[in-house]
Amino acid sequence: MEIQTINKLEQEALKKSGTDFTRLGFALFFMIGVLTFSLLNNGGISNNMFLAVAALIGAYMAMNIGANDVANNVGPAVGSKALTMTTAIVIAAIFEASGAMIAGGEVVETIKKGIIDIAAFGGHADTFIWAMMAALLAAALWLNFATMMRAPVSTTHSIVGGVMGAGIAAAGFGIVNWATMGKIAASWVISPVLGGVIAALFLYSIKKSIVFQEDKVAAAKKWVPLFVAIMSWAFVTYLTLKGLKKIWPHVVEALNMIPLVSMEMTKKPTLMTALTLGFIISVIVYALVKNRINSKTTTLENSRASVNTMFTIPLIFSAALLSFAHGANDVANAVGPLAAINDAIMSGGVSSKASIPLWVMGVGALGIAIGLALYGPKLIKTVGSEITELDQIRAFSIAMAASITVIIASQLGLPVSSTHIAIGGVFGVGFLREWLHVVDDKGNTVEEDQLIIKDEQENKEAYTAELKTLEEKSNKEKEDYTRIVELYKLIANEKRIIKSTKKNIKKLKKVEYVRRDAIKKIVAAWVITVPAAAVLAGILFFMIKGIMS
To answer: Which residue stretches, if any, does this entry annotate as coiled coil (predicted)?
Structure first.
């Protein structure tokens, strides 16, 4: 028996190692392909080897973004069983790459978020190139380590830390804009708290308006179209502001070609424009969803499981749209430093903005998709099922938080991380479950106790109304007096039950639905991301400088 067990373990180990080698082989093949393409494509310029190595590092960084960051977009949908792992990876890969290639923009900031003063390089292109290479490699290595540890971290913070550390190594501490760094540090708290609060509020709203109702189907018929319409409004607004801002002039030109449509040409979309577009789409979505639910409600059971199924299709759309916006907005984390190196090599100088060649954008888009396909499942499982248990309603609330929080924060000028928002949303719904599912000494949950109070209150009101009618009756009979005495006793009894149940709610025992070890690991990874990437970038800068000098 022991020999059979050992043989099974050996077979599993061989199978796992074979899969790991296959993944590594595909990753290396992609990186070598990028290196070769860069050498052949840029063979006629000086420092083409340096650019090829930078392209190799950019490909490595893009794969790590796909492996770590994209999980936040599809993890809740997979954890809630709205999507299978394979379907989620296919959808995310297609929409991430599409977002990067279609709406990734033609120009990128070489120094993300202005965290260091580019003038401190004094126009020395070589020093700038070394710093960008060190920043890119440091961020990629840190993301690789975080993915191995199953810790979802912010890729933006990783590259910010890398740029800061390489900048300090190149020109000293004075190069850093510490006010900006202070705002970024503040986002470690702002992002998850905002995401958690908004996700919890939406989940509680859905529970209160649908799940806690006796006739769930009737309640769903009324409220689900509204919730889905709000979601579509938020997502179209989010996508317009964040996913289309870099190609907005082209979008306006296309829209103005439609009869009866006339839009003012602006460099990027305003909040009012985004909200208006979102509202128009939400009205259409409301009508479509209401019509679909009306035709479906006769076949639905009066259960939470049936209500959950109504949120499956919106979740699939949310995963796709979040992936598109992420690809459009965050691809700069992968290709920004690479574009900066390419620009510095081509122009021989240092500039604050650089154009993105099509091949550089392709490296970012394809790398993110490949990284997601090869190594994304680890983090998707962590986000979707290893922090708290998710169903479609909870996952829907997290997706709502992801879009609404970014809209609010961007308008208030608050620095936020999409990763921290999504994970904060997962924490938010988990802690709301704990708050609602604490149990009293009788084993009842808050939900059950609140339903008891609601029922007894209704009984008390009915008895009180009957009592008032009898007392106002002018010609009372013996049966009326008997009933009045009985009603006084019934009302007193209802008051005792309500009072006792309220006391029970105060003596509740918390049931933990959020894994505390997951919270500690993830929060620790968030806190050390910027300093870890910075230290690593500083070391790498000195190594590169030593090799090149």
So the answer is: 446-511
Q: If we measure between CA atoms, which residue out of 82, 74, 84 comes closest to residue 392?
A: 82
Q: What is the pLDDT of residues 55-78, one digit of tens each?
A: 999 999 999 998 988 888 888 999
| Contacts by residues 219-225 (CB-CB < 8 Å, ≥ 24 positions apart) | 220/293, 220/297, 220/300, 220/306, 220/307, 220/310, 221/293, 221/294, 221/297, 224/289, 224/293, 224/307, 224/310, 224/311, 225/286, 225/289, 225/290, 225/293
Give tens-digit pLDDT for 289-307: 888 888 765 677 778 888 8
Strands 353-355 and 107-109: antiparallel
Q: Find out whether 142 and 159 touch, Cβ atoms under 8 Å.
A: no
CA 468, 470, 471: angle at the middle one, nearest 5?
65
Cα dihedral across residues 368, 321, 415, 75: positive or negative = negative
The residue assigned the tokens 């290639």 is 101
- Report the 3 state secondary structure along 328-361: HHHHHHHHHHHHHHHHHHHHCCCCCEEECCHHHH
